[in-house]
Amino acid sequence: MWLLKKKHVTCAPASPRSAHQSVQAPLGLSLFSSRAAAFFFFPRREKMGKRWIPLEANPDVMNQFIWGLGVTEGEAQFCDVYGLDDELLAMVPQPVLAVIFLYPLTSLDEKVEEYDASATSAAGGKDSNKKVYFTKQTIGNACGTVGVIHAIGNAASDIKLVEGSYFDKFYKQTADMDPVQRAVFLEEDDEMEGAHSVAATAGETDANVEVNDHFVCFSCVDGELYELDGRKSKPISHGPSSPETLLQDAAKVIKARIATNPDSMNFNVMALSKQ
């Protein structure tokens, strides 16, 4: 599966939310936008809370974001994944610490979100695996930042954080919190909101355009592949994995997800690689 990267190009979903222009992919290729902004969708019947500016799926933007918050520059960086076939995955710098996937939300995703919101409330927001760093998302348009938080938080043993930096303090302060408490902490955190705003306006996509896309993170924790989605009540396990096969294992799940929405080409994959 080839994923052709284009700047400033996203295929608009049927929803009138998007102001992007649809384009056609070359024969045999799947058009894969690397510069789509992500909008976290809340069910219309729920009251909209705090909302941030959408974050662009752009490795350059993401790298400046994480380096500014405490990841040592030269320690780790985001890079584009240009395709999901083995020969294209082999081009991605190793080792891969996390995979970020951007995809368009559908009405089915909305139903899942409503169900999981109810399940979270009933379960008190408890995580089934305490070794997985997971937070709920309660801020609109924050899914890119939540994805980054999941990626860094579950690669803490492999990434050197600057002592006293934002990330260093954030993960220490939230280590013993449950996913709902972490979401509340993030919602009240002015420093992260400011950093997100700077990153969101540094991209190439119009930050004022509403789109209906969503970021999730894939991480390998304790020999298992987890999908980390702040809309869900807990991490979703996709079976055995390893640091060496994380990218390939995540690619299989992503391929299956893309296959459920064949009419859309607005997908993006980035890898967080250790340098």
From TrEMBL:
The record marks 229 as: Important for enzyme activity. GO terms for molecular function: cysteine-type deubiquitinase activity. Residues 51-274 form the UCH catalytic domain. Keywords: Hydrolase, Protease, Thiol protease, Ubl conjugation pathway. It catalyses: Thiol-dependent hydrolysis of ester, thioester, amide, peptide and isopeptide bonds formed by the C-terminal Gly of ubiquitin (a 76-residue protein attached to proteins as an intracellular targeting signal). It comes from the Eukaryota. The active site is at residues 143, 214. This is Ubiquitin carboxyl-terminal hydrolase. It comes from Hordeum vulgare subsp. vulgare (Domesticated barley).
